[in-house]
Amino acid sequence: MPEQVTHFKDGEIVVAGGAGFVGAHLVRSLLKDGARVTVIDNFHTGTRASLSAQNRLQVIDHDVATPLDLPGPVSHVFNLACPASPAHYQADPISTWRTSVYGADHLAQFATDKGARLVQASTSEVYGDPLETPQRESYRGNTSTIGPRACYDEGKRAAESLLMDFHRVHGTQVRIARIFNTYGPGMAKNDGRVVSNFVVQALTGAPLTLFGDGSQTRSFCYVSDMVAGLKALASADNIDGEVINLGNPNEITVAELAALLGTLLEDGVEICHEPLPLDDPRRRRPDIGKAQRLLNWSPKVSLQEGLLHTIDDFRARLG
Ligand SMILES: NC(=O)c1ccc[n+]([C@@H]2O[C@H](COP(=O)([O-])OP(=O)(O)OC[C@H]3O[C@@H](n4cnc5c(N)ncnc54)[C@H](O)[C@@H]3O)[C@@H](O)[C@H]2O)c1
Predict the structure, then answer these.
(1) Which N-terminal residues, if any, form the signal peptide (predicted)?
(2) N or C: which end of the chain has fewer CB within 10 A?
């Protein structure tokens, strides 16, 4: 198997969405490698506070739904700009679709002009409510084009199509990551996704909100593993035009996640039930064979360990 090589030292890297949850972790890691990083963000869900000032970092307030023009060389572009939590992406669905599709268009044009590699943060949501498990990259998905999640799911699918056309027509160095549920320290308190919801509720003594009967499954990837995967995708040679799942194949039900948190917090937790949202996927489990083969990447952090770090972080921030 090829060794994982990361050559970001002295790279000139643009991270769109770099003030968000995954983006801020990625930016810190790239800066640590010695890269110069330009963050492009409109602070829709991200915050300036997530990035501490340093001289190899510049932060630009910019909406990716409009064209991007920056002077100087660029080696890599990471496109993470898009609200990822259903609560946030459904609050302004038209803007979500524009961010996803127009954002991919403008960043692809920018990466093409600069001769840079472009890593696109796509999502397991392109598989919709899957009829196949685990989900392989070849699976074409079961999505709704018209439901409340479509602004995100279909926006990300359209972005993938457009980027593959840029690759075929212009030779753009596109690499697409289909990211499965990622969690960890630094998630916004109001993020609205299940791990942060459960941890905030448990730490504030509120019952954990379980949608449906809790038998729907998810596979949770710790954020440092995701960052390593995104960097491996950016640095591997001869993989332009590849679409690769990044996620942790350890699948559990949401009810089991609630029970695990109860055990980790030692006090136990109370549960309250709410109806399952429309089009909520019932299964999520990545097949990561392609990531293992092409990137020599697999996740390393167990759910238990990752949750303990996440709990510590929220505990400190919630006081
Ligand atoms: N975290 C996950 O579990 C997960 C799963 C699948 C895919 N992804 C993808 O990874 C990326 C990052 O996810 P995240 O969890 O960090 O989300 P996040 O909401 O924390 O971060 C998104 C960032 O993009 C910025 N942004 C939003 N719209 C923008 C616009 N029009 N112009 C410029 N910046 C804009 C936000 O302000 C924020 O800083 C997203 O593209 C998301 O779709 C994440």
Answers:
(1) none
(2) C
